[in-house]
Amino acid sequence: MKKLALAILIIATHILAMGQYLEIGPVAGVSYYIGDINPSKHFSGVSPAFGLVARMNYTSRWTLKGAINIGKIKASDADYQAFYGRNLSFESTLTEISAQVELNFLPYFTGSSKEFFTPYIFAGLSGFIFNPKALYNGSWVELQPLNTEGQDTKAYPDRSPYATAGIAFPFGLGMKLSLGKRWCIGLEWGLRKTFTDYLDDVSTTYYLQGEDINPQVAEEYLSDPTMSHTPGMQRGNSQNNDWYSFAVGFLTYRFSLQKEPRCNDFKNVQKFR
Length: 273
Prior knowledge:
This protein is mostly beta strands. 9% of the residues lie in helices and 43% in strands. It has a single domain (24-255), classed as Porin. A hairpin with a 3-residue loop joins strand 8 (165-179) and strand 9 (183-194).
């Protein structure tokens, strides 16, 4: 562990040494999801989201970004006529930590009077945690422990309970604008491709009723609220994994890591390029 910690410290120090300037600040916006209960409508069921972003800028084109985002994802069959007979719904707080690389379309430097604006694209890797819940008798009930599709039961021994943590590939686009010598403001929209189909607790088929499933909560209501489906009928689409998204605005402050020239415009700082 000591050797690993030392290696991480050396790498982090090297990355900081290579960077030209660091920007840190808050983000705020909305989050939503695409999956078995909301299969196609972007910005449907949006909820407030917030977080923190740090950008290490290496050139006027390339930036390494780290971010923490916290938001809520939710959906209800009541909002989609095609799924109204299923009557499923959920909500979940989702927390994400990610590392991303940004590519500016135009040369950009926070504090420059000439290279003060650019659109950009980004991609990276995220780790996230979630916990889908549904409303039952006036209380929010965690769905994963209930095995609503027969996971870990005698009826379906091949179905294991799904994990409430995973990895995703974030990608998207944004724009940023320099305000004065130190501040940057911008907007960003990004999608996250996950490797789970259970952000909403819906993926496969309705289960076979059995003694090892709680008949009062999971079997009687939360798995099949309408009690109108037979065992083995399709409950979700297991061929498509779920997605989630953050659309946020951000405000960052620039911290210089190297001595700056006296001039106010950094267009001619060749080292930064």
